[in-house]
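Recall that a protein's primary structure is simply its ordered list of amino acids. Everything else, from secondary elements to tertiary packing, is in principle encoded there. The following example makes that idea concrete.
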Amino acid sequence: MKNPVKILIALLGTVALVNSCSTVPLTGRKQLSLVSESEIISMSLTNYSTFLKENRLSTNQANAALVQEVGKNISAAVNKYFSDNNMSSRLEGYQWEFNLVNDDATPNAWCMPGGKVVVYTGILPYTKDKDGLAVVLSHEIAHAVARHGSERMSQQMITQFGSIALGEVLKSKPEQTQTVFNTVYGLGAQYGVMLPFSREHELEADKMGLIFMAMAGYDPRTAVAFWERMASNTGQKPPEFMSTHPSDATRIQRIQEAMPTALPYFKK
């Protein structure tokens, strides 16, 4: 006969997982969320500060101002959407900040939980203009506000510790939680080489990003041209920004399918 205590513990673990689900805004998808957002934001802010100390910001004032302008417009639209839909608490702890890092060899951008955004100068040849930059920033911001990082951390922790031991890890072993965070976000010398988002997360961020950029006054239809530019310039090795993303054809098809949803939000 199976040990009833072990069965009870397993059942309690299952109940805890079921109660740890949240819903992604705009898409309505259910996601696993085991680590508090405040804890993740705290770790993000610490590591973001370290990153800025170790990397040189661009001295090109025009490009830096462009990143600031587009970033502030999109973040304002995101704030308004969450406020209008009684979800402002989901952005609690967010302090938006946008920086352009001088790295022409890295066509990449990212947004940490808490709203800290970095764009690498290497992606500007692909963005071309404000609309192209809006595609990138809205996509990365969508990852953050959809809490894809938290979901990815939760999946990693379940894999490593199992549902039974997870509560103890979260409660009394914060260093292990930090280790998982570092694995997910690729912090340190290899910052930016993050644990890949799933294709589901990528396509979800594309759809949400289209709506966010449209709300901010940027034409979502320009997303197709941006991804076509990225695809035509990849050569043998795709840029880091695309390396874990869905195939070009799949992405563009899904973007076109989502366009009727995004366009009503677009007002110049």
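Residues 21 and 185 are 21 Å apart (CA to CA). The longest helix spans residues 148-172.
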